[in-house]
Design goal:
Layout: H1 8-25, H2 31-47, E1 66-68, H3 71-76, H4 82-87, E2 93-95, E3 105-108, E4 111-112, E5 119-123, E6 126-127, E7 150-157, E8 171-177, E9 185-191, E10 195-205, E11 209-220, E12 229-242, E13 245-259, E14 264-265, H5 266-270, E15 285-301, E16 304-321, E17 336-357, E18 360-383, E19 386-412, E20 415-440, E21 445-474, E22 477-487, H6 492-497, E23 505-517, E24 522-533, E25 536-540, E26 545-549, E27 552-566, E28 569-582, E29 595-604, E30 609-618, E31 621-622, E32 628-629, E33 632-642, E34 646-653, E35 661-669, E36 678-685, E37 690-698
């Protein structure tokens, strides 16, 4: 039974909360100070050198990889599902395998971030990753998002910002929901494979109260057999304005069931034994539901601003998957059930103050974050979703506290220095049963002790320093030098079986530049970077789990290019190259992409015509067993017309109907009951041509 002992970490955090509430209440300057604050704000507005500005495309950056998705990308690229959202982020690719309700597989900066272990994501500051999730550490399921209800997406690659903690090793994403809306909309989409989507959004906007909301339902038969999925999504956001104060209450609700497509043997497809889009175990399935409620209080007062945010996140997912078919259990099969049910509660505190001293500006930012995960988790062997052995049955909590400090020293118009530091501590407490694999010296074979009882109560902590140097030789040109240390936490199973007091680090650095020329018609960004991880988790397809590996090293180049030859036309290209290897052996990290590229031509004319042609390229990836995943280039098209009260949009994924492989692995399986084993490449097929039409009414 799960123990509920109160730790010293909770006491420490209570003191932090009390201190921040005092700062929040006392943040208002006295009447004599208000005039000073207004003068400072006016001076800053004239110099235009604040580190954060509300204009999307002109927000000041802290690194070459720190940006907000450009407005033209955000408006013109397809945005009918969460994968569309991730694909518009420069340098990030996603794949989907074994079920539409399962979290994506993320690729960026040479990281096969699996289902989120190296990519932190937030919803307006609320963390979305799931630590110690049974299917993958840092599991990041974005399927609850409704793309049309977001106002922007922020991205920073690398561990350079102290506000971002666990899992922000390769990067961090913050999805910003809309708080206001001018019109209500109803849209209906229909497409190939019996795909249907209905969406309704509504908005109420006044000076003091704003209400936005959306309700969505969709279903599809899918392009694989089986591949059916159905889902519902709903969200609301209410904002109350009271002078310098704003209060926002948001909620998100989601549920989905989907069939899961196998990762099939390539040779069986080549030999015609199965069709490209068939499965070997049609009982695989994924179910997921999520409910998030967040309350955010913001206060702006001259040069100061503060935020208090509390949230609750309920998430339950069950994944039935079978990667090896009958390899380990020749009679019953190797299907596994992975069930994870968690209640997450937490709060975020942030305070910023801007001070002008002589010709310099000093912006101090400080924050504290607390999160408690209460998890019920099962890993079991199943046959057609019926259990025949429970491997792990665990009930545990992870109690995480983080405190951070950042100082933006804007010394001159051409020099900014940003030191920062972060401290994190995580306590692990839990109990349960676990099958224990060991070597039996009497039989000279591997054996298993069934249902060994486990009981643990451990704590680990880490300090992460950060630093950035920004040079601006001329106003449209920035040069960045960054260093940061980050982390992804130990898992609960690690701490239960091999506890340690420290958390493994990732150390990263970057030298980069951003340049705007010809009246902002040409935007260029480029960086050279590196990242070293003391420990790494690498996906093992034979177990369906990520396994702890040795130290890894990555180095690479990133680039972004935007050209605006006319007000209504633009060209874009994002490209990256990476060398990712194990530090000791020098071998490549399996499944790490070497080359990624996205390019496109977009248009949005004042007549209402808009659209984009986009190409997505992933170069070859080295797998296990000296195999390589083939490269692919897929072209997507979206075109639409918007009038005041209605709109039409046609979108075609993979418009050239290219045959490509989405998720690719190399390992040994037994495809048939009591049959021969097979070793080699296995993959999930990429989406064939998929066309859909959307009609929208606005009122």
């Amino acid at each position: 039974m799960l123990r509920t002992q109160k730790t010293n970490l909770t006491k420490v955090f209570s003191g932090i909360v009390f201190a921040f509430f005092l700062v929040f209440i006392l943040a208002a300057p006295a009447s004599g100070q208000e005039e000073e604050a207004d003068e400072d704000a006016d001076a800053i507005a004239e110099d235009e050198i604040l580190p954060e500005v509300v204009v999307v495309e002109d927000r000041a950056m802290t690194s070459a990889s720190d940006s907000e998705v450009r407005r033209k990308d955000f408006e013109n690229l397809p945005r009918q599902n969460p994968s569309d959202l991730v694909r518009i982020i420069p340098g990030v690719h996603v794949s989907q395998h074994t079920g539409g309700a399962k979290a994506y597989q993320y690729f960026l900066r040479g990281f096969d971030a699996e289902h989120g272990q190296d990519l932190a994501a937030y919803l307006d500051g609320i963390p979305l990753n799931e630590p110690s999730q049974v299917h993958g550490h840092g599991y990041l399921d974005l399927h609850f998002l409704i793309p049309e209800t977001l106002s922007s997406i922020q991205i920073i690659k690398g561990p350079y910002d102290p506000e971002h903690g666990n899992f922000a090793t390769a990067g961090a994403i913050n999805f910003i929901p809309r708080r206001t809306g001018e019109k209500s909309e109803v849209s209906l989409s229909g497409g190939m494979y019996n795909t249907v989507r209905a969406l309704g959004t509504f908005a109420v906007d006044s000076k003091t109260y704003m209400l936005v909301g959306a309700l969505e339902g969709d279903r599809t038969d899918g392009y694989t057999d089986p591949g059916d999925a159905k889902a519902f999504r709903a969200n609301t956001g209410q904002t109350l304005m009271m002078g310098n104060w704003s209060l926002n209450l948001m909620s998100h609700h989601y549920g989905q069931d989907s069939a899961a497509t196998d990762v099939v043997p390539e040779k069986w497809v080549d030999d015609g034994i199965i069709d490209r889009y068939e499965s070997l175990d049609d009982s695989d399935k994924v179910t997921s539901n999520r409910h998030i409620v967040g309350l955010t209080v913001d206060r702006e007062n001259g040069p100061s601003e503060a935020r208090i945010q509390g949230y609750y996140d309920y998430k339950r997912s069950t994944i039935w998957s079978n990667y090896t078919f009958y390899l380990f259990h020749p009679e019953l099969g190797d299907q596994q059930e992975m069930r994870d049910s968690r209640n997450v509660g937490g709060c975020n505190l942030r305070y910023r103050h801007l001070l002008k001293w002589g010709g310099a500006l000093f912006q101090t930012s400080a924050g504290a974050q607390w999160r408690l995960d209460d998890v019920d988790q099962v890993l079991a062997n199943t046959a057609e979703r019926e259990r025949f052995n429970v491997i792990n049955d665990l009930q545990f909590t992870e109690n995480a506290i983080g405190v951070w400090l950042r100082e933006d020293l804007i010394l001159t118009k051409w020099l900014t220095i940003i030191p920062g530091v972060r401290w994190d501590a995580i306590s692990y407490s839990g109990s349960g049963t676990q099958d224990d694999r060991y070597f039996n010296v009497y039989t000279n074979t591997a054996d298993t002790r069934q249902d060994v009882e486990r009981d643990w109560d451990e704590t680990a902590q880490i300090v992460s320093p950060k630093a950035s140097l920004i040079l601006t030789p001329v106003k449209p040109w920035n040069i960045f030098v960054n260093y940061g240390e980050g982390f992804f936490s130990n898992t609960t199973l690690q701490m239960a079986n091999d506890p340690k007091s420290s958390i493994p680090k990732v150390r990263g650095g970057e030298v980069g530049t951003r340049l705007k020329l010809f009246g902002n018609r040409l935007n260029i960004a480029a960086s050279a970077w590196y990242a070293n991880k003391e420990e790494d988790l690498v996906f093992d397809p034979q177990t369906g789990l990520s396994l702890l590996k040795e130290k890894t090293e990555r180095k690479g180049l990133d680039s972004e290019l935007r050209i605006y030859p006319a007000r209504w036309l633009y060209l874009m290209t994002d490209a990256s190259w990476v060398d990712a290897r194990f530090a000791e052996s020098g071998d490549r990290i399996p499944n790490g992409p070497i080359t990624l590229m996205t390019n496109g031509i977009g248009w949005r004319h004042e007549s209402g015509v808009r659209g984009m042609i986009r190409g997505r390229y992933m170069g070859e990836r080295e797998l296990d067993q000296d195999d390589w995943a083939p490269p692919f280039y897929v072209t997507d098209l979206v075109a639409g017309y918007d009038a005041e009260h209605w709109g039409l949009e046609a979108a075609v994924d993979n418009v050239l109907n290219t045959e490509w492989e989405d998720a690719v692995f190399s390992y040994e399986t037994r495809p048939e009951k009591n049959g021969d084993t097979h070793s080699g490449i296995h993959w999930t097929p990429g989406t064939p041509i998929f066309a859909r039409l959307t009609a929208t009414a606005r009122f």
